[in-house]
Amino acid sequence: MHQLKDIIENKIISNLTKSFPRSPLKLNELHETDAEIIQLENSPYDLAITIDTISEEIKTGLYSDPYEIGWMSVMVNMSDLAAVGASPIGIVISQILPQNISDEFIEKLQQGINDSCKKCGTFVLGGDTNLGDELIISGCAIGTIEKGKYLKRVGCKTGDKIYTSGNIGTGNAYAFQKLFSKNDSQFVYHPTAKLEWRNILKKYSSSCIDTSDGIISSLDQLMRLNNVGFKFRNDWDKAMDCSSEQLFGNNNLPIWLLLAGEHGEFELLFTIPAEKKLDFLKEASHLYLKPIYLGETTEDPKISLNLYNKEQSLDTEKIRNLTFEKDFSPSKYLKKLLEIDTSFKNA
Amino acid sequence: MHQLKDIIENKIISNLTKSFPRSPLKLNELHETDAEIIQLENSPYDLAITIDTISEEIKTGLYSDPYEIGWMSVMVNMSDLAAVGASPIGIVISQILPQNISDEFIEKLQQGINDSCKKCGTFVLGGDTNLGDELIISGCAIGTIEKGKYLKRVGCKTGDKIYTSGNIGTGNAYAFQKLFSKNDSQFVYHPTAKLEWRNILKKYSSSCIDTSDGIISSLDQLMRLNNVGFKFRNDWDKAMDCSSEQLFGNNNLPIWLLLAGEHGEFELLFTIPAEKKLDFLKEASHLYLKPIYLGETTEDPKISLNLYNKEQSLDTEKIRNLTFEKDFSPSKYLKKLLEIDTSFKNA
């Protein structure tokens, strides 16, 4: 059985939190939800709260445009709220600004924050500012959920259908373009939290997670939490975002790495019990939502994908732990992923 | 009239937030409260939320002990909740940890976080971890307040009595000891959020702020918000913390600088209308709370203190803006404060 603690990130989180007693008001278990769910007494709803910091992405150069940094600092948090089915109340933001930052940079940063909030129908409620060496933005978002109706990562069963809320691969396509490509034509990456899926997912889904760490990480986490496996549809490339596929194609990169990289597309990934599939698709269509079919939940706890005309089982533990290697750099990371691809070609 | 915007910190906050539309659920105005107050619909209470980051204090060496850093990262946020009269629900914490940090350091850091939560009767609800160059901790605390009953910085009137929730000066005494003194004997600085004052302050106080930025900053902010002045009691040294006074005395530093420095003691500073004073003191005594009398609110909007046998008016704008000078360093800061003291001696 695959264990949560085999993934370094899970182990770090468990280690940091092991000494903390559990709040009697906290409804979710550790790792079980994308945001924390807190019981509000004498209230028709519960509270969702999440905190997320943008720092590594700025440091590696993945995010450099101030507007984009502002946009993402809100969106990553709103995506967590979307993944638990919450309606956002707002966000508080702590900004560490370098001394030498320009007024223009700050203005664009705030514009990105503002537009991101607008897109989610929410508000900056307050914040905190410090001076520092590097630009670092932490956002903490809160939202409400009808009592007991939050979405969880746990609950999927063998035979459930797996969907995403949109075509996938954009996060890793963007990361490649930004960090490796000399081509000036900017790949468009402008994720939005999928808050509008809230009600339909509460009605039909058996588990839900956002793809902030990419598709394979999300599936791997669901596998470990639910002790099930996932088999991608044979024509899984149909689920991919077209321009992402083109970008990777033009650069002779294997398309499946768009699923494997850790920079996600911030879609929702969810499972629907087979018997609810038709009703779900019908209602989604009425709501102008377009779920993308990705595959099926299997009994055997592994993640498998048709690659080079062969059903191949992915070593998702190895893939997920690559970013925690001591000498991590984007180019070493890509090299290791390509080595894994070579092993599939030769399999 | 002294304006909020004459203080660089206020100006930065106003500039950062000017483009953000106001949430219809937000009850407080900008600068008006220590935490944001958010209306919860269909609920007997409102929500308080605050975010605060410990970074500059680590960078300058003011906080270096991991336990203390953990303790303070919770306490600064709980103090904001105390200053609005909220009952904490919990805190989420984003930690940026340097790559080379030791397991022992991390353990003590978490222990500090844990003990600080315990002291406040609250819990870590969740968090986020990143790797980075420097240790940076952001906490975001939430709490509840009986509907419409939150404490504000605005509301005090001429003649109101000023109190603090405890003896003052410890924050700046600690900062001096830590940054300037070669003496090994550690000055004890272990602030606790004054959450237990909640009910009595809701009943009697006309304004409240925490002293996270020191006494003079807090009074100056109240002055600007309420267009009143403050006159310290003639024997204001009686309000000081004994060991802080001793430390400054032993180092030939003017005692009043314990009020002026920007590293606060995290007490609550509040005003009580004169006619309520006796009832307030009686009830405080029953609750084993010991308010420290500091002075009186005056019509003339200035802050005055008996110094060198003369009533002196403090240039609080100058004092507060010292930390924002371009070439700021703790030693330059102390030097400038001592220059101001010299001008009083010669006045």
Describe the structure.
Two copies of one chain form a homodimer. By secondary structure, chain A is an alpha+beta fold. The first copy, chain A, folds into two domains: 24-146, PurM-like, N-terminal domain (60s Ribosomal Protein L30, Chain: A), CATH 3.30.1330; 161-345, PurM-like C-terminal domain (Phosphoribosyl-aminoimidazole Synthetase, Chain A, domain 2). Chain A is 36% helix and 23% strand. The first copy, chain A, is built from twelve helices and twelve strands. The first copy, chain A, has helices at residues 8-17, 56-59, 66-84, 103-119, 170-179, 198-204, 215-226, 242-250, 257-260, 277-286, 316-321, 330-345; strands at 36-38, 45-54, 87-98, 124-132, 136-146, 161-164, 207-210, 229-232, 268-272, 292-298, 303-307, 310-314. In chain A, the strands form two sheets. The first copy, chain A, has a seven-stranded mixed sheet, sandwiched between helices. Chain A has a five-stranded mixed sheet with strand order 1-2-5-3-4. The longest helix of chain A has 19 residues, at 66-84. Chain A is globular and about 55 Å long. The mean pLDDT of chain A is 95. Chains A and B meet through α1, β2, β3, α4 and β4 of A and α1, β2, β3, α4 and β4 of B.
